[in-house]
Amino acid sequence: MKVIDQALLEKVIIERSCTSHKGDYGRLLLLGGTYPYGGAIIMAALAAVKSGAGLVTVGTDRANIPALHSHLPEAMAFALQDQQLLKEQLEKAEVVLLGPGLRDDTFGENLVKQVFASLRQNQILIVDGGALTILARTSLSLPSNQLIITPHQKEWEKLSGIAIEKQNEGTTFSALTSFPQGTILVEKGAATRIWQVGQSDFYQLQVGGPYQATGGMGDTLAGMIAGFAGQFQQASLYERVAVVTHLHSAIAQELAQEHYVVLPTEISSHLPKIMKKISQKGT
């Protein structure tokens, strides 16, 4: 088991170059928030922007766009039903987050199929939430992109066939052999583990607790992962995912000293300040 320590945090979260611009920090496309789950994609978008993503575009239900813009004018948005815009944005994106608040229905299934079919090798794909449910139900074959999957225990049960009570290091390691080489798994639970297919070792969180058990926590983590996937190229994608997953729970743990329950949006709000502290320690 690998530990996420201060040295790894400082390796990933570095100060920005004075000559950089928004194009250097990731062009992200977030897809989800179909009725009645509009809040999920808003929380994911907030987390992506607060983690430092350069450009964030959201595809969601048209009726959800005013709410998104009122929370986050920094994000661009379009209606998922607009096929032309969807195709254009899928071509432009460097990182695609698919699934927060995506309803498991025919429309959702068709969207997942379309995204899987259209991605190029150099694009990073994060599959979360409703897209994981659709993936497990349809047995679609995963694209061989740089792939990150973020299931909670019930979603991992559906994906892997391992009952929750039998989920452990050994069963997960065995199940991962059927996933594309290089796939990163964020196995969320009381002690979240982060794996990469092809490596025998894994990272395990030493932070977090029951104050995180509230709706939107996973959507926020997915948005943070997307944000880190688009920047910090000096570290491996696996290291970036491990660090941001740690930060998500570490910030929650800090907030829980004064709060009975920690809201996902509060984690996003605190993220830039924590990242600043880490980047300064590393210099």
UniProtKB/TrEMBL annotation:
GO MF annotation, one: NAD(P)HX epimerase activity
Annotated residues for binding of AMP: K188, G189, A190, A191, T192, G218
EC number(s) stated in the UniProt entry for this protein: 4.2.1.136
Cofactor(s) annotated in UniProt: Mg(2+)
Subunit and interaction comment: Homotetramer.
Record's function text: Catalyzes the dehydration of the S-form of NAD(P)HX at the expense of ADP, which is converted to AMP. Together with NAD(P)HX epimerase, which catalyzes the epimerization of the S- and R-forms, the enzyme allows the repair of both epimers of NAD(P)HX, a damaged form of NAD(P)H that is a result of enzymatic or heat-dependent hydration.
This protein's name: ADP-dependent (S)-NAD(P)H-hydrate dehydratase
